[in-house]
Every structure is written in C-alpha cells, then in structure tokens.
Amino acid sequence: MSDASGQPKLLGFAGHRKVPDTEAMRATIRRELLAMKELLGKRMIAITSAAAGADLLFLKSCVELRIPAIVILPFPEERFAEDFEHAEDLAMARHLCGVALAKYVAPGGHEAPEAYQIVSRLILEWADAFLFAWNGEPPKGAGGTGETVEEARDLGIPSRVIDADSLAPRWETPPDPHRKARHGFHSRADLLDLLDARFAAGR
Fold it and tell me: For residue 179, what pLDDT is reported?
C-alpha cells in the first residue's frame, strides 16, 4: 500500500469500551501500530474517537510511539464527559485530546447512538486502512464496532482485527500492495486544512 510519493496515510481505529485485559490489549495495539506504520509509511497519521476502553488504549499507544493522532468526538466535551463512568478515564481522554494533532466534533448535534455512528462514518470516509479491537459478534446497534467492521469490509478498506478476547490479530480485508492513498494529501498541513474546512462547514 505504500507509494513513492510519501503521502501521509490515515489509519482508522475502533474498539469496544469493555476490554478484558487492558495491559495485554495495549501491548497488542502497540505491536499492530508498528506493523501498520510499516504498511502505510512513516508519515502515517491515526484517526479515532476518544471513548473509554480501546480508544484510549489506542491513543495512549500513539503517544508512546510518537504517531500523530486526529480525534473526532461525538459531542462537545461537556456532553462527552457524561459518557464516562470513571473520572480517571475522563481525565485521560482530556489529556489525550489535548496532545492530539487535531480534535474535531462531529457535526449535527446528534445524541447517542447516532452521534457515535456519525463519528465512525467520518473515520471510514478518511481512513486508508483500519485497525479494530473487536469481539467478532454481530452489530448490536448503530455506531458500534461490529457495524464499523462491516462497513469497512463493504468499502474494501484494508482492515486488521485484534480479537478482543484472545488478542489474536488477523486480516479482515487484506491490503492491496498497489492501493494508493485515498485522498492524495501532499502534506499533513494539506490534510488539516481540508479537515478544518470540512468540520467548519458541517457545524
């Protein structure tokens, strides 16, 4: 999937809120992030939300590995805080959003679960590849990880799945070595300018 142009490519992420073994999952995510960076190139940028659970493990790993990350929230921060059960998770989400390359709020002012579904579809729109932490079960509602896995498959987006229970990784949709960057950004600044305009227009 890499190409000689060195264009930045986006790695989407989605995962469950409930993670049976957080340290083991975090270690697996780190390994998979490094492998995906080999696939997508050294200018890879992550894009995800910041819900409790797998999202925060992914964002922590990005910080540790110095991979820039873009965060898309389903609601403004005051409303988003209501979806956290534990104060330490909320504090971590705020910190990770603060150190992210950029942070946006999904447009439309929707409530859950539609707001989470919009976030997933925005990430699907931009991602060149996807990493999931998924239990393999069918979708249980709008905006869930299972639904996003199915939509990524339908779109043909190369997708790597970490089994949420066994932690075994596998390809859901294998990469195409000849696939180019979906959007053809020449630089990180070009990408951020376009996203700034896109989210401003969606308010």
Answer: 77
